[in-house]
Structure formats: structure tokens, C-alpha cells
Design a protein that fits this description.
Elements: H1 19-33, E1 37-38, E2 40-43, E3 55-58, E4 73-77, E5 80-84, E6 91-94, E7 99-103, E8 108-110, E9 124-126, E10 136-138, E11 170-177, E12 180-188, E13 193-197, E14 205-210, E15 217-218, E16 259-269, E17 275-285, H2 289-294, E18 303-311, E19 315-319, E20 322-326, E21 329-338, E22 347-366, H3 378-386, E23 389-391, E24 399-400, E25 405-409, E26 412-418, E27 428-431, E28 435-436, E29 445-450, E30 459-460, E31 463-471, E32 474-481, E33 484-485, E34 492-497, E35 503-506
Parallel strand pairs: 1-6, 2-3, 9-10, 28-29
Antiparallel strand pairs: 3-4, 4-5, 6-7, 7-8, 11-12, 12-13, 13-14, 14-15, 16-17, 17-22, 18-21, 18-22, 19-20, 19-22, 23-35, 24-34, 25-26, 25-34, 26-32, 27-35, 29-34, 30-33, 31-32
């Protein structure tokens, strides 16, 4: 044997002359092959100016000095190219690619290729130890499964398949807290999909079931009803006062049931229902709703949830005596507070922002969780608002209040007005700052036309208006002249209003 079996190192022969030549040859081969690192792979021609000791893996179709040496290791040694034939199992590091290759006896392959197809592993633990029961275990903070794209040889789809041998078996996902089950979803002993929950990991309550034959969904434990909205006119669609979006000073009402809070307020409503708010918007929640919803005299000690859709930026919310921040975001966002046991009266809801915010579908409800917002039918919403404010309707131009009035004496004109719906309490008058006209009124003026004589009633000393003998379902408008009205006592007629004049009955909280 003249060479070693693995690296083909030349061996010294007995009585060999110039032994140093053979020894140096063996050392040179060792230097070339031990800790083998090549500049490039698949090189088909020598570089123009190679350095001593440079190595390359010769590729297919090589030419020049590399011709006929495909698959070998080219070594530039003593100014000439030498070619070393690899053996199965040899490894080479490719500097240009930072890649480790292994020779399988035929070709050079990436060392990682042997790990790309691992079959029949008995168990696998990632960051933790797998065991006989949990043969796949992982301790991590996130996991990603990405669909293999078509340009990668995939289909662009991704399906995670879980299979069980028979209907009686269980196939499910269990969600735990402290290794104690809290929810389970899947096929639990049947082929109907179900979701169940547990307070302790041992007692399970079926929440949802889906029949695999019909697709019918059932709720074995029942469903929570959609919570009633304590806010009236939450869509800002009722606008009896004719508010046009101008600046409201504190305490002034705009849209029905909404007034400016401790600061000024500007409100507007877009056609798609988006509300713009800047300042402080306030609504007082009637404590009587507690009797209807809870069978209780008040909301004292109740948990209330305020929710909204598509809030553009956070809003400070005051609910009773509690303060919270309603978070911004797309879709529904909410905040929950629990009222103090001493809050036995009406509940003040206040929304405050220093800049303009937009939102939709505002809701305040009893309970710790938000439920869907439902729009009240327009007629019902207006009837609810009319319990607190009713604008008296007029006809024609100038407007005529269609209620016959009577001049009772020298300085009183009474006009009985029926109400379209009962009010929360006996109302007071709410009107613009009017002036009295002894002619057909214009602008913010009021006038009274004597139907018998066809003359307009004048006055002296100024006129005020109030409500007499009022109840939640009826009232008498009383116009009182500081000195007297013209005409004769007992005259009957109708009140006329100028184009910007209005009059209403108010029983706001």
C-alpha cells in the first residue's frame, strides 16, 4: 500500500531516497483537506490570479486547467493546480456563501439538506422536554404558520388538519390558565362542533353547539339579551329644537336630550351617522329606567358599560361620579365602571374632549360587557324624547299654533295645548327670546289674531309666557301682558309665530 486509505496521503517506502519529498507531499495534502474551506463551489474555470493555497470545488462543464476535474477539490499549490478527489462524508465550508457542504459519494450537497426531511421522530421538544403523552411540546411566546406560496412550490393555501379515528373519540383544543382548563372547542365525543367553558377545570358548561348535519347553532345555556341603551337619542337623529351645529353655551340643549356640559359644545351629525363632537356633551340618565330594567329604584351600585364605534381618539367620560377614558379604535371600544352605592339619583353622563372627535353608535348599558348597539325605530325614539321636550307644531307661514286661545281678561291670553305624548313631569315653557307684534309676526316675533274681528292684539308693558294648570299630559300656555292687551276680554283667536320663532314644553331632568 503506497497511500493511506482515506486521504490518499503518500507513504514512505522502505529504504526510500529523498524521504522529505514524500513527507512534504503528505503534509501539503493534509494542509489542503483538514478543516477544508473553499472559496467557491461550482467553479468552471480557474481565477486569473490565484493565491497560493486557494481551493475551489470544480463544477460541471469545467474548462481550461479545470477541464476533466468536475467534482474535485482544486488546490493551487506551488504555482500549479492540483486536484484532490473527495470521499463520501467529507465536509467543506464555502466562504462565498457561508455554507457547509457534505460529499455523499457522488455530489456535494448542503449539510442542512439532511435535516429538511425528518421522518418518524418519536418525540420533539422545543425549548422544553417532550414526554410519552405530550410527544410534541414547545415552550415559546409566538408561533407562525405561513401558507407556502405558489412560487415556492405550494398552493397559497394553508389548512391545519386534526383527525380522530371515530366519532366517539375527542378532537379538541383546550385553553388553560395555570394548567387548569377554562375553555374547550372541537369535537368532544361526537361529530358536532361545540364550545364549552369551565370555572375550575373539572366542571364543564356547554356554551355553543353546531349540528354537523344541519349547521344549526344552539346555545345550551341560553344567550344573554342585548342590553337596553340607557342613552336616549344615541344616534342624534331627533332634533326638535332645530339645532344646526352652532356653538352651545353650558346648559343649552342642541339635539334632543343632549346639552352642553360645563364647557361649550359643538355637535354635528353626518349623513352616514358619524357624530363630530368638540367640547363637553352631557345627558342625564333618568333614574326611573332602573325600575323598568332592574326592578330597582335606582342604579346605585350597578356596573355600567359605555361603548362606541369607530372612536377617532380617546374621550374622557364621566358616568355618575366615576371617571374613565373611553379608548379610541376601529370597531367597538368600551369602558366599564361601577357606581357607588350612594348614587341613588339620576346619572350624569358627560363626554369631554378638547379637540374634535368622531364616533358612531354610542351606548350605555347595565353590565360588565358591551352588547351590540341597536337603532331604535325613529317614531319610538322621538316619542321617548318627547317625554322631556315637545316642540309645539305650527302650520303655514307665518306659523299658526292650531290651538284656539282665549283672552281671559285685560292682560291674560290662555291657550290650552294637548300633548302628543305624556311628559315625564308637568312641563315648563321653552321658547326663543321673542317680541310681541300687533301685526303678522316675522322673525322671532309672536302675535295673536282675534278670529272674530280679524285684528291683531297689541300689548303694553311687555309680554311673558308661562304654563298654567299643567300636568304631564296637558298644559295651558299663558301669555301675560305687564299692563294690558288691546281688544276686548273674551276674544278668541290663534297664536302666530314668525319664521324663526318657536315654542315648546320642557320637562328635562
Amino acid at each position: 500500500m503506497t497511500t493511506t486509505p482515506h486521504l490518499a496521503l503518500p507513504l514512505l517506502a522502505a529504504a526510500q531516497a529523498q524521504k522529505h519529498v514524500t513527507h512534504n507531499e503528505a503534509i501539503a495534502i493534509l494542509d489542503a483537506l483538514v478543516q477544508l474551506a473553499v472559496r467557491e463551489r461550482n467553479r468552471t474555470s480557474p481565477p486569473a490570479s490565484p493565491e497560493e493555497g486557494e481551493r475551489y470545488l470544480v463544477g460541471e462543464g469545467a474548462g481550461g486547467a479545470f477541464a476533466g476535474h468536475e467534482g474535485t477539490i482544486a488546490l493551487f499549490d506551488l504555482g500549479a493546480w492540483r486536484f484532490l478527489a473527495p470521499r463520501a462524508g467529507w465536509c467543506a465550508y464555502v466562504e462565498a456563501e457561508s455554507l457547509l457542504l457534505v460529499f455523499d459519494g457522488t455530489a456535494w450537497k448542503e449539510a442542512g439538506s439532511c435535516l429538511r426531511a425528518i421522518d418518524r421522530l418519536d418525540r420533539l421538544g422545543i425549548g422544553t422536554e417532550a414526554d410519552a403523552l405530550n410527544r410534541l411540546a414547545a415552550n415559546l411566546n409566538a408561533a407562525l404558520f405561513d401558507a407556502r406560496r405558489g412560487d415556492q412550490g405550494g398552493t397559497d393555501d394553508l389548512r391545519l388538519v386534526l383527525n380522530k379515528p371515530a366519532a366517539r373519540n375527542v378532537l379538541s383544543l383546550i385553553f388553560q390558565t395555570g394548567y387548569s382548563g377554562r375553555a374547550e372547542a372541537g369535537l368532544t365525543g361526537v361529530d358536532d362542533f361545540s364550545l364549552r367553558v369551565s370555572p375550575d377545570g373539572s366542571t364543564w358548561l356547554d356554551a355553543v353547539k353546531v349540528d354537523n348535519r344541519t349547521g344549526v347553532v344552539s346555545f345550551p345555556r341560553g344567550t344573554a339579551p342585548v342590553g337596553a341603551n340607557l342613552i336616549m337619542n344615541s344616534a342624534f337623529t331627533v332634533n326638535q329644537r332645530g339645532y344646526t351645529g352652532s356653538l352651545l353655551i353650558p346648559g343649552t340643549y342642541g339635539f334632543d336630550r343632549w346639552k352642553a356640559g360645563s364647557g361649550s359644545l359643538v355637535l354635528s351629525r353626518a349623513a352616514d351617522g358619524t357624530i363630530s363632537l368638540q367640547g363637553s356633551a352631557e345627558q342625564t340618565i333618568d333614574a326611573s329606567l332602573a325600575e323598568t330594567l332592574l326592578g330597582a329604584p335606582s342604579f346605585a351600585g350597578c356596573t355600567l358599560t359605555l361603548s362606541v364605534s369607530d372612536l377617532s381618539q380617546p374621550v374622557a367620560a364621566t358616568i355618575g361620579t366615576r371617571e374613565a377614558i373611553l379608548p379610541a379604535g376601529p370597531g367597538r371600544t368600551s369602558v366599564t365602571v361601577t357606581l357607588d352605592a350612594s348614587e341613588t339619583g339620576h346619572i350624569r353622563l358627560l363626554l369631554t374632549t378638547s379637540s374634535t372627535v368622531t364616533f358612531k353608535r354610542l351606548k350605555l348599558e347595565v353590565g360588565p360587557n358591551p352588547t351590540p348597539w341597536l337603532r331604535e325605530p325613529a317614531d319610538i325614539e322621538e316619542m321617548r324624547c318627547r317625554r322631556y321636550y315637545q316642540r309645539l307644531s305650527v302650520t303655514g307661514v307665518p306659523g299658526v299654533l292650531p290651538c284656539l286661545g282665549l283672552r281671559r281678561n285685560a292682560n291674560l291670553i290662555d291657550i290650552p295645548v294637548p300633548m302628543t305624548s305624556p311628559m315625564r313631569a308637568a312641563p315648563a315653557v321653552a321658547t326663543n327670546a321673542f317680541s310681541w307684534a300687533a301685526a303678522s309676526p316675522t322673525g322671532g316675533q309672536f302675535g295673536f289674531l282675534d278670529s272674530t274681528t280679524g285684528t291683531w292684539i297689541g300689548q303694553s308693558g311687555g309680554v311673558s309666557v308661562s304654563v298654567a294648570a299643567s300636568s304631564p299630559s296637558s298644559a295651558i300656555l299663558r301669555f301675560q301682558a305687564a299692563t294690558s292687551f288691546t281688544g276686548a276680554a273674551g276674544a278668541a283667536g290663534f297664536l302666530h309665530l314668525g319664521s324663526s320663532a318657536h315654542i315648546g314644553l320642557q320637562a328635562e331632568i
